Amino acid sequence: MTPTTVRIGSGAGFAGDRFDPAVDLAARGDLDDLVLECLAERTIALGQQRRLADPDAGHDPRLHARLAPLLPVALERGTRVLTNMGAANPVAAGRAVRALLDDLGARASVGVVTGDDVLDVLDLGAPALEDGRPLREHGEIVSANAYLGADAITPALEAGAQVVVTGRVADPSLFLAPLAQRLGWAPDDVDVTAAGTLVGHLLECAGQLTGGYAADPGRFDVPDLAHLGFPFADVAADGSATYGKLDGTGGRLDRHTVREQLLYEVTDPSGYVTPDVLLDLRGVRVDDAGPDRVRVHGARGRPRPDRLKVSVGHRAGTRVEAEISYVGPGADARGRLAADVVATRLAGLPVAPRIEVRGGPEDARLRVAARGDDPAVLDAVGHEVEALYTNGPAGGGGVRVHRTPVLGVVSTLVPRSAVHPRTTILEAVGAAA
Amino acid sequence: MRLHDLAHCRAGDKGTVATLTVVPYDDAAYPELVRSLSVERVRAHLEPWVAGDVVRHELPLVYALQFVCSGVRGGGVTVSTALDTHGKSLSSRLLAMEL
């Protein structure tokens, strides 16, 4: 029988998110589904590089640490868990989850969604959306992943998977898929699809809906950030939803926190594009509905786009960042003198470093940063800052020099016919096929 | 008075495009924000950090203004040499604006 409402929770909003709020939600939240969104744009390009070095790597390195305490609690209560921690290697991630469940003696089946990796079939002569230049002109391409939609996730749910692991899918689709499957929404019903997409959009950053990333002491006070509770939504069959968080958790959930997240990263409120729908936010209303409860309704939709967005990762050289501090009387002037010295010393370099003095009058930190391909040039940048110890202004201290390989990301569009999502179900050892 | 006295703000980023969501603490202050935060004034205030166009969307049902800023200086999150590669701190830059 189709339920009247579904409760879906958000257990992670990025790869670096806290572990414990999801466990608390699973234990006390009476959830139907719990989604862990852990895959930023660049993360998959980084994962692809790890996978090249080790065929079993490339998924989220915290997968085990995040899921080991969570899955026993969630599965015991019948809560499904969906996550994009598969990153650049969903198959290996699925095997890791299977092994974890086997260790726990859990019979739950794992669904793995693949097909987002289109590197082998992508036309590298196609223009990047960002600048119109062919993709290959941006540097060595290391990854290309299509944003799959809810329709790529549904088969795993229909097959009874209780844990679903994906690579690149659109973040809201991770939420829309279980909602649509439980509430019986048809993919071509654009308004409920838009409403479910809005649920995903509001929940996908987890604590950003419940007062995380909002606190501003004296203006926007948020209680007990150290124990920020993550949100859930009670979603009705018409797609309207009431958002909440668990009693006893920190944070705050009200029209202010929800309004900020409603428009987060939205460049066109009349048509927020996902693989599932064009979401029109202009008619959405956000109203307080009690302590830490907010009601949201009014999403409208237009049919999904014909093409899928592909996120393309490319090598973009190395970034060097070098810093030194000056404190006490005249710190700012000494910092600026150090900046002048470095600028003079680096004037002949083929890269133009960013040179800035940060901080206040009595606590100044010179920061020099550059990006390039030539290791000797980048080394010179760090070296000149280090040399300020004995060649620069008085009292310089705390030199740090960091070098980081840089991956750039551009995007392009491909026809849906070029992308073939697949589902693999990993049953417990000894389970009937 | 600064915008910080009237409103809170969140920045989001999409490559070299930054979104800035401005919401008044008091819903009744929304019309004042619509009057004060013209595209021209916001673009002038953000000029050190934003090179391109600023587009404003009004969302009166949720008492919010959305500014979409193109050409964030430094190249965007993936290749920027800025300390805050995302441009996350643009929200606080905007709140420093005098009204």
UniProtKB/TrEMBL annotation, chain A:
Domain Acyclic terpene utilisation N-terminal: 6-424
Protein name (Swiss-Prot/TrEMBL): DUF1446 domain-containing protein
Lineage of the organism: Bacteria, Bacillati, Actinomycetota, Actinomycetes, Pseudonocardiales
UniProtKB/TrEMBL annotation, chain B:
InterPro entries xrefs: AtuA-like_ferredoxin_dom
Superkingdom field: Bacteria
Domain AtuA-like ferredoxin-fold stretches: 1-98
Protein name, entry field: AtuA-like ferredoxin-fold domain-containing protein
Organism the protein comes from: Actinomycetospora lemnae
Taxonomy of the source species: Bacteria, Bacillati, Actinomycetota, Actinomycetes, Pseudonocardiales
